Amino acid sequence: TKEQFITQFKKRLSEKYAMGVEDASPTELYNTLGSLMHSAYSSDRHHTWRQYLLNKQKQAYYFSIEFLPGKLMASNLLNMDWLETVEEGLAELGIDLADLTEVEQDMALGNGGLGRLASCFMDSIASCGLPGNGNGIRYEYGLFKQKFIDGHQVELPDDWLSTGNVWEVRKDSKAVDVCFYGQVHLEEDANGKLKPVYKNQQVLRAVPYDTGMIGYKNNIVNNMRLWSVEIPNSEESKYRSLEERRTIEDLTAVLYPDDSNAKGQMTRLAQEYFFVSAGIQSIVRYYHTLKEPIHRIHEYVAIHINDTHPALCIPEFMRIMLDEEGMSWEEAWAVTLKVMSYTNHTIMAEAMEKWPIDMLKQLLPRIYQIIEEIDRRFVEETELKVHDRSIIDRTRIINHNQVHMAHLAIIGSHSINGVAKLHSELLKTVVLHDFYSLYPARFNNKTNGIAERRWLQLANRPLSSVLDKTIGTSWRDNPEDLQQLLNYQDDQKVLNALAAAKRQNKENLAALIKKTQDITVSPDAIFDVQIKRLHAYKRQLLNLMHIIKCYQDIKNNPDSEFYPRVFIFGAKAAPSYAYAKTIIKCINETANLVNNDPDVKDRLKIVFLENYNVSLAEVIIPAADVSEQISLASKEASGTSNMKLMLNGAVTIATLDGANIEIRDAVGEENINIFGITEQEVYDYYESNTYSAVSYFEKDPVIRRVLEAFIDGTIPNIQSEGREVFDSLIRYNDEFFVLRDFESYVKAQEKITECYKDKRKWQKISLINIANAGVFSADETVKRYADDIWQIEPVTEYSSKKG
Ligand code: CRA
Fold first, then answer.
1. What is the signed CA dihedral for 493, 495, 497, 502, rounded to 10 degrees?
2. Whose CA is closest to atom 15 on ligand 1?
3. Helix and strand totals (H; E) in the chain
4. Most exposed among 30, 236, 593, 622, judged by the fewest C-beta atoms under 10 Å?
């Protein structure tokens, strides 16, 4: 109750800081509340763990090099069912909960969609009562903080742990050793079995930090285990200088700020092995406490490889089965295949991780031996199956002096899935076609999903309360019940209430824009939002070109009618991705020009919000009218901001790419704005080699005028950047078909403006989008992983009958 909470809170504050509420700072109050919550859910964590143990439940382990939870206080309060009580209790003490959550730093141990998906899954797995855990790296520095200086992106370190982390628990007793480098050879042991003998290994200590993943009002608390590197006591004497120590500690210091290019760095490879080895060792150690025979481990353990970064799970698991558990190769391989499953998240060739053989051999000699043997057996086996030998060259793991991580992941997993229908089809028919012909039964689709608790219940409380009043509260447990909203699509009262909620969110975002960027925007304007990593294939440039066209139209005809629009961007560019940074500079300089041009008279505003992250997304998404999902068809594996924006009532403008297609199927053609060429047309262009960007420049005066603005000084301060963009389109033939799709994009945008002017029509479309977003609940997605791939079941209370 509220009274109990107030008493406990004051008591804890006094114990912790010897203070009363009046003297405490927001940080002290935040820490007090966090520690109170932590004590409360820890017993649930313990209970959950005991249930799994006593039931000997099969558990899934989601291995991911990225997790992107954002802030945890509000979502933990919601899931613990404490939110209202705590809010009211604090209010009584004169404290606003929002001031406390403000103190928390975003946990940003991920780049974008991949890491955020992992965190949505953690929330959903616990909320569905499923036994599933995360396994990853506790980076000391998360994704860089982005600042704009003179319109350029500048990266600052994200020292997120500097203020402490109330949610994590260091588990010294669960630390394990992870070994690198050295030499290895095989020797026969007393039983005639070959055993590896190591020399000159570097031994590092992996220390786990556990964070409770709290289920939604079900008392289930799962675990996200993140590993941090330390120098083991036994090795202390080896590393005398600060510098030597620092090199070791660097292993878990930073998250690689690049979600598309595999960087050829030893540290990255070492990171991959580090969390994989530590995670698998701790799983096997736990398995032994069940006292079940090792060859049945697949009945109790499922390991998921989230993109290729944890693909070393396969040889590492093999190593432990062979070298430590004494299995034969055949036995070890049989269980490994049954334990492992893999998700592919991209078809972009540059993101297909490959490592030079020499590097792997040097860093992980035993693992390399095992990979070689997996490859050898794969070739041997495949030779018997296929007539066309070239297929082996294209599918084997080791080729051209490189180790292909995706090939390893596919060959060693019983399930391979893509993240949206189109993406999974493309894997089968194009990208992984050879593998599909070898292992058709392994391939399946699992369309991504989102945690609707965070992205609607928490982020959009005005909308949530309209929903409660209109259709009751069952949607909070079962997002598919949002469908009931369809009964109100012609109810003007409901439409008005939805519009009022949107208005409130827009005012909220407008205030944030004023505060952080000092730009005044009117909530009456259309809020047009593109938020995602900056990447050429996502085509922020197409958006910018349309904005420039609008600006030129206004300049040419200053008194013409133009419905006010605010174009809102949020995007980080990988620090090494020069072209992406060029686009940022161009958008910022265009913003400068347009926002300060008196002719524009507030009809057009461009806002590029700095440091896009989960917390910022929670403010932007509820306020969006238009959702920009404009990647070149075939390139965006799924996208998930498309789902979040739809759920919050934004109307989508999209190409037929990724999950956009499934969004269209859910809302119907008339409630989404589709434009652009299809994936088939893209492939046709590749095949025929007939795309000519310059012809669009020559024949379309609008395109010509827009592109000239990049190089003729219309947009100031982008001499070199404007030229670079121009050249990428004209000289280098526009890799992502921006010019090809421009005209149809502009038309779709014009339709949006017309539609928006018809308030009632717009509101109805917005409602239809909200109502149909339930199918994208990550709860449903993880249930499909649980049933089809992991074969895990929700927890039940332990019954002694099970023995
Ligand atoms: N960059 C895809 O590009 C997808 C997410 C999550 C991505 C997105 O379309 O929604 O994964 N791919 O499945 C990726 O990280 C390494 O590949 C992404 O976030």
1. -170
2. 114
3. 31, 25
4. 236
**Pair of tokens at residue 525:** 């304007």
Tokens linked to 776:
């994208």
d(CA 369, CA 716): 57
Q: Are 115 and 67 in contact (CB under 8 A)?
A: yes
**What's the rounded Cα separation, in Å, for the pair 758 and 765?**
11
* Distance from the alpha carbon of residue 639 to the mean position of ligand 1, in angstroms: 7
Confidence of residue 803 (pLDDT cuts 50, 70, 90): very low
Q: Using CA atoms, how far apart are residues 217 and 594, in angstroms rounded to an integer?
A: 48
Q: In this predicted complex, what is the ipTM?
A: 0.97
User: Kindly report the CA angle at 85 between 81 and 90, in degrees rounded to 5?
Assistant: 135
| Residues with Cβ within 8 Å of residue 658, at least 6 apart in sequence | 419, 420, 422, 423, 629, 631, 636, 637, 638, 639, 642
Residue matched to tokens 């012809």? 695
CA separation for the pair 72, 70 (Å, rounded):
7
CA-closest residue to ligand 1 atom 19: 113
In this structure, what are the phi and psi dihedrals at residue 752, rounded to the nearest 5 degrees? Answer: -60, -45
Q: May I ask the CATH class of domain 57-71+106-446? A: alpha beta
Average pLDDT for 77-99: 97
Strand partners, 418: 445
> Is 219 strand, coil or helix?
coil
424 lines ligand 1 (CB under 6 A): no
- Give the Å distance between the CA of 345 and the centre of ligand 1: 5
Contacts of 468 (CB under 8 A, 6+ apart): none
DSSP 402: E
Q: Is 757 exposed, middle or buried (0-12, 13-18, 19+ CB in 10 A)?
A: exposed
DSSP letters of 67-89? Answer: EEEE--HHHHHHHHT-HHHHHHH
Residue in 66, 68, 114 to alter for ligand 1 test, most ligand atoms within 8 A of Cβ: 114
Query: Which residue reads 């109990």 in tokens?
Result: 4
The answer to whether the 57-71+106-446 and 460-471+480-674+740-780 domains have the same CATH topology is yes
CATH topology of domain 460-471+480-674+740-780: Rossmann fold (3.40.50)
pLDDT in tens, 666-707: 999 999 999 999 999 999 999 999 999 999 999 999 999 999
Instruction: Count Cβ atoms within 10 A of the Cβ of residue 237 and give its class: 0-12 exposed, 13-18 middle, 19 or more buried.
Output: exposed
Phi–psi pair at 232, nearest 5 degrees: -65, 150
DSSP string, 179-210: EESSEEEEEE-TTS-EEEEEES-EEEEEEEEE
* Predicted TM-score (pTM) of this structure: 0.97
Q: Is the pLDDT of residue 801 over 70?
A: no
State yes or no: is 640 an active-site residue.
yes
Of how many residues is the chain composed?
A: 803
In the beta sheet, which residues pair with residue 654?
629, 674
